[in-house]
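U., I forgot to send this yesterday:
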Amino acid sequence: MWTLRRQAARVVLLDPSDRVLLLEASDPARPAKGPWWELPGGGVEGAEATATAAARELYEETGIDCVEMGPCVWRHHATFTFAGYHFDQHEHVHVARSDGGEYRPAGLEALEVMAFKGARWWPFDELAAHAAGGGRIIPPWLVDQLPAVLAASWPLALSVMPIDMGELGDIA
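Result:
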């Protein structure tokens, strides 16, 4: 099987109420895998900075463009098969703030059109309950790591070296 190896950027987008925006997705090639909720994001293009890629991907996937992009807080190595393609990517996860916004994708690729079912602003307690009840959240460490970000004063306390979350296998 062919493998797409790339750098990727994702964003934990928080609104003024500290709700996090997640996209509902499923694999169009394997619907039996069921749905999951994931952070917006995707591949870094050329020499693009990861913060720039995260903002671009956020806009393409959600239509939200007025954000205060913060630092890369986490990194991980993700491998997964999606829509018949095998991905091997090193992801940089940034934290950003916005005033909120409606889900109005501005530039989805064909596979994303088939995969994304919508978006939701999740209050942390509801997200944690969803995960505890067996709901799939990607990345799986988000619920454990998010409280530290919510407790930090924005953005100065987040200006640290990214935390390496290690290997994530078959996340989608």
